Amino acid sequence: MEGRVMDGYQKTPEELLEEVGATGTRHTPKFWARSFNDCRLDHASSYYVKGILAPGDLALIFGQPGCGKSLLGPLMAYALADGRRVFGRRTRKCRVLYIAAEAGADMEVRLVALRKRYGAVNGLHMIAVPMDLQNLDCRDLKELRAEIKRLQPDVIFVDTIAAAFPGMEENEARDMGKAVRTLRSLADEAERGAPKPAVVAIHHAPKEGLTPRGHGLLNGDCDVTMRVEGQDDQPRRVTFGKNRNGPSGHAFDFGICLEELGIDEDGDAIRRPVAVELDQEEAKKPKGKPLNESQAGWLRDLHNLFAEPGLASTRVPLPDMRGVLTLTRDQVRVGLRGVGKFELDQDGNLTAKDRDRMREALNALKDRGKIGLTADLVWLL
Questions:
Q1: Which domain of life does the UniProt lineage start with (predicted)?
Q2: How many domains does the chain have?
Q3: Is the distance from CB of 19 to CB of 12 less than 8 angstroms?
């Protein structure tokens, strides 16, 4: 019978067309075994951040509130868009989309602070609106996919999972699994033949434990997890819980500094935090003994003085330093006297005892790495 062979095998339509000279695209089966000797290095040689992030990855940055996870994300996004190294690792210059589902308006101001510190860059875009990717009856997911298809980003940041999926029961496997599938599906809008985008989600950590908050399915499905630890003025420590593209364990450190952006309508300074890379040896240096209650009070008063509009001025206190906000010792003395830190003598001057107290307090804060100090100037570290 035409179209059959002796053993009963029936030729496929593609094979029949080829016999008569027709050309077409042969279907490649999904389950097509590759021999051991034909295994390739394709995935290992492809990266967005070398040793951290590769095409098609789902990565997670997580930590406690105030640890700086939503500062690390924008810094990495900026480095990718600029094509510059980040934390000593190569990046491939690419198009980046940062989705700020949580506190989007403030995130936009933080990006302005990032631009002031590091300069303008093309290829970094943001969406800063509330959204609901959990409810399939809502049009948000469809419209977001349409914008991703139009923009064609190589890396997509989602900040945060909780804000992008409101109402999700994080400890339920069904809800968490749905969220993970949705996050991965954002990469499906890439043009045919283009590398698959990576998705980096920002998430919270539980009160205790070393894995992300919620059902373990999230941690299990991610290709890369980065745990951020640290509070207040201490360096932030980033540790890989898992990393399919490189070693796990301690990865890098970063710090946080405030960028002054202008003055608001009340005359107060507008400042926003940005992440800054730390030299690894500098990050390892001890920061001194913890402050006692009295020293912490002196430091709070100094922070309040620096926050007063127009009081601090940018100066270069020491050779080879960049400009920083400083106060003169006289300004500090007058300011601390104004908040009742000192008692004046009968002539309206500081007593010798109070001058000694101030000198000892400032030296103690300097020794503990909280302030910089010269004979004339004071600045925050």
A1: Bacteria
A2: 2
A3: no
